[in-house]
Amino acid sequence: MAWLALILYAIYLATAFLLRTELHHRRTGSTGFHGISGRVGSAEWLGGILFILALNLGVAAPIFDLVGDLQPISALDGWLGHILGATLAIDGIILTLFSQGAMGASWRIGVDPNEQTTLVTSGLFGFVRNPVFSAMILTSTGLTLLVPNVVALIGLATLVTAIELQTRVVEEPYLLRTHGDTYARYAASVGRFVPRIGQLRVPEPRPAREPDPATAAAHSDRP
Question: Residue 23 sits in which domain range?
Answer without folding.
Answer: 2-28+43-203
